[in-house]
## 1
Amino acid sequence: MDFKEHIRVINDFPKEGISYKDITTLLRNGEVFRASIDALVERIKPWQPEVIVGPEARGFLLGAPLAYALGIGFVPVRKPGKLPGKTVRETYALEYGFDTLAVHADAIAPGTRVVIVDDLLATGGTMLATANLMKKIGADMLGMGFLIELTFLNGREKLTEYPVFSLVQY
Ligand SMILES: O=P(O)(O)OC[C@H]1O[C@H](OP(=O)(O)OP(=O)(O)O)[C@H](O)[C@@H]1O
Ligand SMILES: Nc1ncnc2[nH]cnc12
């Protein structure tokens, strides 16, 4: 399956100079959506994770069905002020701005085998912040998977501690 054919590219969104990779066109096609989850399952199952972690918002769209397919739990990493319990936080830089991420402090028991999934790797700031949150709560980080990687932004250089894969590259 050529996932790129189903990803819409919109130039100058959300700011001039950004070539936005829109996955809504992939998600709305049931066959392609399922194939993308199946492809993630194939890559991630051998790592034998106990929990999938996904950052808000697009990490939920792939992470939750992936966890369901693997028959394991899903832990959301959220933007601040959204989680009701005690949280740990990390601030990070985006391709277009700054943000903070938070996770419930008790979301994952120390030593739990965790894989993080997101739709897209750009500068790597989101994934590094998510990995740092996992470190803070004592998770055993097995690796990270992405649907899309923007290779020219060298996000992988921030993530050299971990195995990283992506299904399509720009
Ligand atoms: O590698 P980075 O430079 O950190 O960029 C990648 C992140 O940017 C996008 O999320 P965004 O923050 O736009 O939020 P959204 O998922 O709520 O749309 C994307 O879904 C990744 O999470
Ligand atoms: N170019 C891009 N397209 C879609 N989502 C993004 N997140 C960060 N950079 C992005």
## 2
Amino acid sequence: MGSVTLSDPSLFREQCYIDGQWCDADDGGTFTVDNPATEETLGTAPRMGEAETRRAIDAAHAAFPAWRDKTAAERAGLLETWHDLMMEHQDDLGLLMTLEQGKPLAEAKGEIAYAASFLKWFAEEARRAYGDTIPAPKPGQRIVVIKQPIGVTAAITPWNFPSSMITRKAGAALAAGCTMVVKPASATPYSALALAELAQRAGIPAGVFSVITGSAGAISTALTDSPIVRKLSFTGSTEVGSKLMAQCAKHIQKVSLELGGNAPFIVFDDADLDKAVEGAMASKFRNTGQTCVCVNRFLVQDSVHDAFVDKLKVAIEAMNVGNGMDDGVTQAALINRGAADKVMEHIEDALGKGATVITGGQRHERGGSFVQPTLITGVSQDAQLCQEETFGPLAAVIPFKSEEDAIRIANDTPYGLAAYFYSNNIHRCWRVAEALESGMVGVNEGLISNAAAPFGGVKESGLGREGSHQGMDEYLEEKYLCMGS
Ligand SMILES: NC(=O)C1=CN([C@@H]2O[C@H](COP(=O)(O)OP(=O)(O)OC[C@H]3O[C@@H](n4cnc5c(N)ncnc54)[C@H](OP(=O)(O)O)[C@@H]3O)[C@@H](O)[C@H]2O)C=CC1
Ligand SMILES: O=C(O)[C@H](O)CS(=O)(=O)O
């Protein structure tokens, strides 16, 4: 990995993990993994396809009975050991993540703690897969509902949170008694393979958790063509999520989808503007704007518009753009040049429709996939960014007059993942929170993601919830027992 040395170099894996074994692709094929900040090659990962995927599915199938039959406490203990190993190696795992994904090192280490928190959360939830007994309508009968693990599951995960998007799924699946085959994003395989290394060290049995890298199409086809796989969990674009949902129909596989967003951030005239700016910065610029719950559109009420924009400009200009490995950097390279092109396309389109640049607006002088953190105002509602997720460091402000205008504009999107608003009027807070078409709402809060909360969207932002006590239900089947006399 260039000049970077891990304290524990064995966490850097360039092979996949199938059935407890580290292996290359059958044909020896590999793909390269680059550092987004320097565009240097970090290493390679196996280019696997259908044959390797089928072996991983078969291993998961073979491992399922014994894993299912462990007690919840035994599964919980192994998840807690995996959590502890993640935290013990937090620095190395953070380094790996910054090298392959680009995010500032402090954020990467933060994501490792966030990722580990899902293992700890679901270790606790494992012990609470409660069933029901229901008074029967017929004398002598008894109605009992038990919960059982769904079986072999699969996950396809994105590059923006290369560790936590895996543990948010695998933690729930393994806690429920399921086994899982994971295909991480090709841009960020090393965080996933390091998780597999630590799962092996934690004593999670062979076949229970496998990680395969390579052709997304071939791997996903093998996963959705197999009736052994009973559930697929996906985080990524709505376009791919829709394709996968259709593929899962063939064998009626359960599917969970965490997809794209288009989050509105509404600042009302009765907001605390300093808190609103704090929340705006946290939500907009986390991971250099590359999260599915990032603000995509700022809606600011006329009477506070200029004051809010002035404060936001100061906060944006205080950020430090650079290589995520360097101390003090708070905005990093985007995942690739294509992502930077998309941000510039959104800026240029909005300017062409009458918007004004308040700060930024250009590619960063560092070149490559760096973009200046940008603030634009006077954004027209027919701008491309109002219908498409920018996924980058662009704060776009749309003015509004009334509360009704704000709700109408906010809901004018096929997406509904996260929404945010700031107001000190409790009656308005209830009205607006209930009116927003979104799975999650931050009320006077810009950071809403944690393992205890049900994370998920409505409309074209997805299906199902992850985390919280709902997260494990995605991996459990309810069985109704009718006990006759
Ligand atoms: N909801 C969220 O958290 C996320 C949303 N997004 C949104 O998606 C946009 C595109 O980002 P991107 O990373 O390209 O997201 P994708 O949806 O393309 O990729 C996410 C995952 O899906 C895999 N994948 C890609 N194409 C297919 C396919 N045809 N069948 C099965 N799996 C597939 C990818 O594999 P591979 O890497 O090998 O191509 C990756 O593992 C972003 O700009 C953003 O708007 C992106 C990431 C996270
Ligand atoms: O997919 C994402 O962008 C993540 O879900 C964001 S979060 O969970 O870290 O908020």
